Amino acid sequence: MEVGPAPADDLRPPLRLLEAELREGEPLPEEIVRSLADAVRAGEADVITARAARETSETGSDAVLGTALLYYRLNLSSGGRFASFEELHVAPGSRGRGVGRALLAEVERRCSEKGISYIEAQIIAESVEFFFYMGYESEPDLKVLSRSIAFGGYQAEEDI
Q: Are strands 80-90 and 119-121 parallel, antiparallel or unpaired?
């Protein structure tokens, strides 16, 4: 397995896994892909990808086993930067084989390289035990809240 950041001009393969997991296979809008590529080029984000080594891939290509989407942000209270990721997905056939651990190790290596010592993860409930096992802790004074808002004539279904 090879793990590392995807180049800005080759984000489609790792994004396909996220599209399958999060969007029922529906491709991301090109504008979103371009914005993400711009953020990667600017050093504001990384798309960390775990791929099967060519010789172990059934197709002979570098099959994507897992993807983590990592953003680098400012933290005014600490006067520095922190990393945030909302997406870490492992292909269903690759779960339980160390892919998630390898992705997190690369996330931490990239952060260390950039002088970032705090990583925040927004995760779904079924992933909590994995993240606890990997050393992540709940933030007792922080809660993530969300709200859908209407824009450009569109209103989220749950608001109708």
A: parallel
* 67: nearest Cα among 100, 40, 44: 100
Query: Which residue, chain included where needed, has tokens 């897992």?
Result: 66
Residues 6+ apart with CB under 8 A from 2: 50, 51, 53, 62
CB–CB of 71/83 below 8 Å? Answer: yes
Give the Cα separation of 100 and 127 in Å (integer): 11
The per-residue pLDDT for range 74-112, each reduced to its tens digit, is: 988 878 899 998 889 999 999 999 999 999 999 999 999
Backbone angles phi, psi at 134, to 5 degrees: -85, 5
Closest of 66, 64, 47, 67 to residue 6, by C-alpha: 47
Domains recognised in the chain with CATH numbers: 2-159 (3.40.630.30)
pTM (two decimals): 0.82
Q: Which amino acid is at 131?
A: F
CA pair distance 118, 115, nearest whole angstrom: 9
Phi/psi of residue 119, nearest 5 degrees:
-125, 130
Alpha-carbon distance 66 to 106, whole Å? 12
CB atoms inside a 10 Å sphere around CB 29:
9
Structure tokens at 155: 């209103």
